[in-house]
Amino acid sequence: MAIAENSPAVVNFAEEKGSVEIREIPLPSIGNTDVLLEVANVGVCGSDLHQWTSDHSWPVNYPVVLGHEFGGHVVAVGDGVEGWKSGDRVVSETAAVIDPLNPMSRVGLYNLDPTRKGFGYGVNGAMTKYVKVPARCLHHVPENVPFEEACLTEPCCVAYNAVVANSRLQPGDNVVVIGPGTIGMLCAVMARLNGAQVAVVGLEADKGRLKIAESYGCVGIVGDASDWARNKDGLGAELIIDAAGHSSTLKLAMDWVRPNGQITKVGWGKQPCDFSLDPIVQKNVRLQGSFSHNWPIWEKVIAMMAAGTLDVKPIIGGVWPITSWKEAFEKMHHGEVVKSVLKPV
User: What's the whole-model pTM score?
Assistant: First the structure.
């Protein structure tokens, strides 16, 4: 099949709210260590929505093609690429540009390289037909994992890093997840897979999402989770995962966490906090940030998907063509679905 010279793409072209539209873009030119990937599916992330509504807190290289949760087939490889060939089924990590000599990169934590640039904000992402990807970002996708599920590998890795790598979680712990979006839901799933009792907290408008959380064996709560967090001995939950997109939820986390417990913050919120952090000191609580992921986490998550241990189908609210991006964005933005998936045309 011939490769098209131009393809429609979902482009965030300026900082002003609503500055996203379909534009025709040329076929990317790959370098010596890159592959050209034909995108099969791309997930819509909360960060894509934040750029669309212009309430994000990270620098964006405008204009830029959105999309960093994606998988597809390799269609061309650079001269210096080894181990990959045309036709390979792959997903891609998000760290499109890193400094390999940065101290963080040298210890395998390239996700924490301060010069890192990701797909969808730093370089062109995958809400289009073809995307240029450094070969180091690729992971094989087994045949039994369809791409509409495989494209959720990235948010699953975010959740794995937050819950498994960055939190002190033991089977039997009480875990409260604040925010029933994609990351919050997947954090709840990871906590359940690790033997925790989990409550997912949302707003009245999130009732549909909370029903999905309940299908994973979690407790869905609208509003106040105080009683549930303290249902063992009155002291609070061992772990609070703050996956909401607003800074104010940290105050709830400080209230619901037990002494000597942990709050892991994975949700972004650029609003300044207007409350004291003294409860963290008083309770001897660990406040842990969690950002992105790295190579071994991707391998573990893909293995979990292939084995059927990790099932993401319940959170997929639908698959839309790229040209219907706005409907897919709005469905997520208004809480009608947990995750929207796009398919290039």
Answer: 0.95
